[in-house]
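Archive entry. Fields below.
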Amino acid sequence: MLLIEDLQVELGGKVLLKNIHLEIRPGETHILFGPNGSGKTSLLMTIMGYPQYAVKGGRIVFNGHDITHARIDERAKMGIGMSYQRPPTISGVKTRQMIDICAKKRGDVAALARSMNFEDFLERDVNAGFSGGEIKRSELLQLMAQNPDLLLFDEPESGVDMENMALIGGTIAQILQKTPVKDKTKSIAEQRRERTKMGLIITHTGYILDYVPADKGQVLYAGSLSCSGNPREVFDCIGKFGYEECIKCAAQMS
Amino acid sequence: MRGSDELKEKAMRALQKPALFGEDVNLGEFDRSFVPHAYMAQEEICRLPEKEQERLIMSGLDVTGKERDGTYFQKDTAVVHCSSLHEGIQVMPIREALERHRWVEEYYWKLVPVDQDKYTASAYLELHDGYVIRALPGSKSVYPIQACLYIDKENLQQNVHNLIIAEEGSELHVIAGCATSPRLQRGIHVGISEFFVKKGARLSFTMIHNWAEEMAVRPRSVAHVEEDGLFVNNYICLKPVRSIQMYPTTHLLGDRATAMFYSVIVGSPGSNFDIGGRIHLLRPGARAEIIQRSISNGGHIVNRGHLIGKAPEIKAHLECKGLLLKGGVIDSIPQLEGHVEGVDMSHEAAVGKVSQEEIYYLMSRGLSESEATSTIVRGFLNVDIKGLPPELKAEIDRAVAASDQDAL
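PREDICTED_STRUCTURE:
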């Protein structure tokens, strides 16, 4: 379980996030909405442990461990993984090598790459000249190899064409254990109960909702979580009234 | 012809002439007298003391010779092994070649000016030996030819002269390893190399240096590339050395001739590198690429690159990247010179540190900070060199991998 209590975060002395409360239970996937600059990416980077995001108050607890001040690699080893919106290019480091690093030499990289239609990119420098959709597929492959319990997705649909959206959306649903299968030994209800994966997905367009049955939607507005509810309902509401209405809700909540 | 009065006179006049770049080495301090060593069969090379073999292997030498089409091995001033296993490729000591074959004279001192500086002059006047490697027309090497220049004698000035000739339509790959014995401290290596890449030929020349901390090194090399010819020139030096200065130059004389220079250098404290690369693009369709990667751990590295475009429809690019890991200086000096309309020339230079964003990205995939840094540095050194057979590519990767510990 991911538990965030009364989190306050600063970047370069400026308050980015305040009064953040968030609880994601095993099997749950939450959607994070919010206008540009509201702090969505900052929240993901803080959970991942980027040290420039200074935690000034509150705490982050993951699977019973207080990770508020843990290093990025410690969090990765504990089972937190992230799909970046704009990951850096590392020249001379091949995509295959990145996937190997994530997989710690277990698993079949070639088979994984085949499943994402990404074999032709394995020998290329990671992210070098990749299109939006290629970056997303590369990020997903790395996450699949890493197999974390908590998966953070920063706008998985940005720059992705319609054809690849289905592949990416479907894959995310699958790794978040949102696609139960017919199984002789286990009922669907049992499969649901035994889910361990947790997801937190940032979206602008809401396309991801067509593929991933999410449990909860929240709006991050001016550094605070201002709305919480059925993700589809929250998204439709934003579509109808815009984020301006969030100001009212935020005022009421505080 | 070796006694040619004109060359001799020019050389004599240049004996005190310093080089344009680099520390001026006083050659009077070094011993140039011949050092006798017995000839060895290939099997005997495998029986050399382990520490010596290690030095050879680190310089790209396959001591068994199994993965090579031929071997030239010179210890100090003496040729200790010379053989070719490929009937289309000749490998000969240059002194012997000059005596036996008249055609060798057509290449000897034809590209490098004997009076360029005191090093070329000294190499002419007091030549020890060197190799002639020639791929006959249309021949194709399966494995690379290896040439090793080894220094065992303290305070030696080793003067060598090499001719590398790829005849029309041939394909030739050469690994030239230079190394010193594990206990050697001081010496100087002067190496003249003249390359001839004929019509449609492909030549790759990979030089791996493995010197000692008090060594000075002054290679002097010039190449001519004819129509549709390809010349790939790689240089790798990851070990400490006091001073290396070189400015290899290539003239692309034929239509669509191509030259590619790649260099990977690690400069440790006390090491001084002044590494240039100059390519003249003289005919339409000529292509040139210079890629330089250097890491300084406290050494002083100057990277010079000079592209000269003198014909339309040429394309030339220079990329020079430096990483400062533990102090030192990286001085990057790229130069582009376009003489006619229709040239397409560019350069890209950057000197910096390992990117924090890249380190964090790798850490979020589970690597520790030091593992992430070493992965990035290894990637930085991993230049994709085009036009090499896989065996040679593997050899270069191995040399880089074996030395990345030192880089960190």
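CURATOR_NOTE: The beta strands of chain A are 2-11, 14-24, 29-33, 53-62, 65-66, 80-83, 150-154, 198-202, 216-221, 224-229.
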